[in-house]
Amino acid sequence: MTLMELLPSLTHSLPPRTDPKLWPDVSDRQLAWIAATFGTPTYVLDENTVRDQCRRFRQALPHARIAYASKALTCRAVLRWVQEEGLSLDVCSAGELAVARSIGFPAERILLHGNAKAPEDLKAAQSYGVGRVVVDSLHELDLLTDQKVLLRVTPGIAADTHPALATGDNGQKFGLGEADLEEAVARIGARPDLTLEGLHCHIGSQIRHVATYEQAARRMVALIARIRTPIRELDLGGGFGVPYTSDEPDFDLTGYVDRITRAIGYECARHRIPVPELTIEPGRAIVARAGITLYRVISVKHPFVAVDGGMSDNARPALYQARYQPRLLRGGPTAPMTLVGRHCEAGDVLATDIPLPRDVHPGDVVAVPVTGAYHHSLASNYNQVGRPALIGVRNGLTKVLVRAETEEDLLRRDVG
Ligand code: LLP
Question: What is the pLDDT of residues 270-285, one digit of tens each?
């Protein structure tokens, strides 16, 4: 065989090169070691990538308040990293707040969100003394005392995302309409113990186009001008899209900063109002690319390759038709395959038509990138399967951040 004939088969049998847009800097050797040591399925989270993303946002907007939306991934370690990087924190339940509280996250830097905050959520937030409560209904005002608040409004913007992730248009459950906004401003004005710090909007998640944010920013400044009450802060929420597959572009953060700061400056000058301080709430963009999920192949029935996890650790394909680009931790000539989960539902499909080695077999380890956001936090016990461990990695070192859930854990709650 000549070298030219040999080369294609050699390159074919090498593990496929990973796209740095999707993969953190964690070696295959370390991933294989984690799978062997901690079992599968397992979530892996690269600390450096999380910290780098925090810094990227802080550098892009040095004067803004950057609040990590902890719903993307809440655990003590991540909240500690985020705190150390100087970010603020958005929590949306007493449970998320309890994790923040357990690591002593500074109360002043916490915002409480929620379209239907239970009295317990508000009580927990007020007893810890959170910096801001983002009010989403008139009734909520009656439940608060001595509090700085933002008012969440519905900006009437249709975001370029999956319908389940669009939260800024009229006709959905989030935010106050214009009439309620005016009423809320009047009620706060009559309450010396409440301070209206600002207005808030969150137009949705996995937003790809900067223009959508620009539209929202203009609309929000117009609303601030209309309510004729001094407003210090404008919170434009989160939603920054991330690529899940190589064909998707990265979010243009520089373009975002450029266009929204210009739009806000221009609109404020036009309405003759001072430029408010800016807050944003990235969740996914901070943690998504830091995460990798490891599975082991259980069975192969071409074209189906079934693994030992699925919709209980990754609900996103079923919920939002999300696409992923998994790979095997070894090479080989490939063929299109469909990666399916272990759960008793035909919709438990992780990725369709992806190239995997033709000789894929039980025991092989599959790695799925961009699984740091809304995977651990959306995980369930469907089919009484325990939720996976979350293993932190940093510079080649490994640490259990959240241990795997055991059958004993599941039985402990079942007291009937
Ligand atoms: N702020 C508020 C008020 C939010 O509701 C959210 C997300 C964020 C910030 C953060 O958005 P991000 O930067 O992460 O896009 N489970 C879905 C995503 C739901 C997002 C809910 N709210 C998914 O897996 O795609």
Answer: 999 999 999 999 999 9
